[in-house]
Amino acid sequence: MSSRPSLWHVNLPAALLGGAAMLVVALGAVFLTHQLRDNERQRAVGEARQLAFGASRETAEMFWRFREEFVFSLTHLPYERLLNESEAAPETLVPVRRFLALNQNILRELVVVGPSGQGRTMTMRGENYFAFSPIGPLALPENDPSDASGRVVITGVVQGPDGAIRANAAAVLDPVRFWKESLTVFSLSHPNLWIHLLDERGRPVFGRHGGEFPSSLPVFTPDVKARLEADGREGYEGRLLHRVDQSGQRLDFISAYVPVRIENWSGMLMISSDEQAVLGPAAKAIGILTAIAVLVFVLLLAIFLHFTRHTLRNQRQLEESRRLAEIAAREAEAANQAKSAFLAMMSHELRTPLNSILGLSESLVERLHGPLTDKQARYLELVLTSGRHLLNLINDILDLAKIESGRMEVEIGPCPARSVCEGALQIVQPMAARRGQKLVADLPPANLSIQADPRLLHHLLVNLLSNAVKFTPEGGSLGLRVVSSPGSVAVQVWDEGIGIAAEDQARIFQPFVQLDTRLSRDYGGTGLGLALVTQIAQLHGGRVEVASRVGAGSTFSFILPVAAGSPARAESAPVAPSAALPAAPAVPAGAPSPAPGAAPAASPGPLVLLVDDTPLNVLPLRDYLEKKGCRVAVAENGRSAIERTVELRPRLILMDIQMPEMDGLEATRRIRALPDPVLSRVPIFAVTALAMPGDRERCLDAGVDEYVAKPYSPRDLHARIVERLNPAPRATAP
């Protein structure tokens, strides 16, 4: 199952996250609503309380103003005339009637009693209509707390100008009417409030809403009624959040009530707000905010899902690109392995016959099998030269392939510059001599070391010097010099050849590039030499520079760092070509050679076991070694090599690697595991056409002592055998 996330895998967490966010928004909205409601309720209750106290204070002030006006009227109005039947005509009582008319909503009746105890009452029967009782014995009314009617009495004395008492008067007030008068005006200025007057038992007496009487008084729930009754008896103020039935509707009120009192009458004034009207704007604002929050959340969720889909699409594309890249990388790796296998096979298949060609040619050139005519000698020299050229071409192709694939083995360390330069000059010297060219060498002192791989540096110098010989006319000059500076050394190869145009100098370091067809015809080559030189320089962390003019020659410089401990500067000095290596002792021509697989004839030379399944490889090497005085035994495969090693006890084994039945690596391991300590330590040379990266290490890990790649020079191989069997004695301390 694919581990790649699908849209569902993203949408499910997004949906859960969205649900959680919606829940948070909902809880936040509920919390905010609750807080706002509490705040609005507190504000409404506080406002109602203030208004209740204000209305109570205003009503008390109105009552005292009425008391003062009534007392004042007793002094200035003819109340005593009410006691005289003849003067009770309406026109004689205009001032009194006007006073009463002004307070008709407050007064219940007016009582006047003379000094003789005779008196009469004047009762309001309607608007501007007064009913008079007949004159008769009458006592002034008094405030009675037990009076169920709850009337309030204000008394006063009617005096004449001389101060004599003419009558006593009493104004009987209806407190409910008094509060109606007062609260009606108050209700008009606060139309959104419900105003109720309660008696001392908490029962509604009347109400106002917007200055009008409601169709019915509120009906309180039992618990509210009990609380109001208790607070009314004690004269407490309070606050309520309660539900009432008002005019057939069930309303939620926010109320505040305060105790009120007029003379002996007491009750409570309740001011209420409809909770829906109070909380409606806040709830609406909360709803709008919640809707906005939900809209913003949905918008953000949509944007998130859009970008999530976009991201998933990009991720799928990226994964598809990565998958294709991995497939391409695997295919490239497979192609690289196939190329490596092909190169290894071609290396083996080319080196094996080339080894026979070079070996036989070298044996014939050295006249190990008898004299040659001059023409035969020239032809053999051509064969040997062509074979070596083919070998160099094969090595260049393989080395370039190794470097480009990153499999070239590089062992960089302190390297004596002089010895490497001398080795390259020795190889090129015969080529220059054949063309009559002068080879000049300005070499550094022996103590100058550079950081390089000696093998690759030698290869680089041989390539540069070979190019210099090829492009320098016959009889011309070329050379090698070493120029040192603090921290670096420049190895320069110069010539007096045809030169290179400035626009072509960058192209010559590309593989398989020849500057033009004319050069290809006049000067052979594949165009690999300078490309390989550039790659080797880069492996060393150095660089190659060229300075050239057409017709004036070229100078190639290879810059390398100086090894630690070498002199900062070193003067170059001309050096003579190195002396040739001493030749191995010769064996008389015509000496008999043993048949393959037969035991070698007894002779004083060392016994060498040659293990190879290819007769073309066995023949030239066996003949050469026998001519040089060695005894040679032959084995065709690894299993035979083990048997012949135990049987013949050779001094040295030349082991091929690719063989039938048992390969050379397995045979080497088994020889190293022999119980005989002498045989298990016999020197073994791996002589093989396996020359790809890692082949040398595989051979050394199997237990061989030296690695020799085919094709090889029989002369060089014989020299290495002599060196291994007859090591130079070490100097001993005096």
Can you walk me through this structure?
By secondary structure, this protein is α+β, with helices and mostly antiparallel strands. It contains 16 helices and 25 strands. The strands form five sheets. Strands 1, 2, 3, 4, 5 and 6 form a six-stranded antiparallel beta sheet that branches. α5 packs antiparallel against α6 and α7 packs parallel to α8. It is rod-shaped, with a radius of gyration of 65 Å. The model is unreliable at about 515-520, about 570-600 and about 730-734 (pLDDT under 50).
Provide a compact summary of the structure.
This protein is an alpha+beta fold.
List the helices and strands and how they pair.
Blueprint: H1 7-76, H2 94-102, E1 107-113, E2 118-126, E3 129-132, E4 136-137, E5 152-159, E6 165-173, H3 175-189, E7 193-199, E8 204-209, E9 219-220, H4 222-234, E10 238-246, E11 249-262, E12 265-274, H5 275-365, H6 374-404, E13 413-416, H7 417-434, E14 438-443, E15 449-452, H8 454-471, E16 477-485, E17 488-495, H9 517-522, H10 529-539, E18 543-549, E19 553-561, E20 573-574, E21 607-611, H11 615-627, E22 631-635, H12 638-648, E23 652-655, H13 664-672, H14 677-680, E24 684-688, H15 695-702, E25 706-709, H16 714-725
Parallel strand pairs: 14-16, 21-22, 21-23, 23-24, 24-25
Antiparallel strand pairs: 1-2, 1-6, 2-3, 2-4, 5-6, 7-8, 7-12, 9-10, 10-11, 11-12, 13-15, 14-20, 16-17, 17-19, 18-19
Helix pairs in contact: 1-3, 1-5, 5-6, 5-11, 6-10, 7-8, 8-10, 12-13
